[in-house]
Amino acid sequence: MPCSPLNIGDQFPNFEAETSVGKIDFYDWMNDSWAILFSHPADFTPVCTTELARVAALIPEFLKRGVKPIALSCDTVESHKGWIEDIKSFGTCVITHLSHLSEILRVIDSLQLTQTKSVATPADWQQGGKCMVLPTVKGEDVPNLFPKGIETIEVPSGKGYLRTTPQP
Predict the structure, then answer these.
(1) Are 57 and 91 contacting, i.e. CB atoms less than 8 angstroms apart?
(2) Per annotation, catalytic residue among 48, 74, 93, 131
(3) Can 131 be counted among the known catalytic residues?
(4) Domains observed in the chain
């Protein structure tokens, strides 16, 4: 059977694994939360060490969003345990260039918002910013779905598809 790539928002297949904290069944470990999987080619690699140190520092932000981070590497559990000590040690260093993980948190916020509301988030959207009303929302549904109202942006085509609303 051909293997197809996974995209953001796809359901990751279940698996069992020996981890640095014991054996887990991925779906049981996730329970009712979301999860984000950080995959790395090997333990003791420089960029991966900095990334996982940043992930560890952001665990409270992930948990606040109901998201459990997990890292996957093809090395042994013993190797992982040794690498974790390096990650912890590096995590005490000041890192100023790893802002892409903040972008991951922003994407999680967007995915969770758009999963439950009839909105999309525009380019450069930030938490609390204006959202785009989905084109599938009918005019008669607007007052119920968007009590703060909507604004239709005038465009040369005259089509009223660019509608914004305060974040629901």
Answers:
(1) yes
(2) 48
(3) no
(4) 16-104 (3.40.30.10), 118-165 (3.30.1020.10)
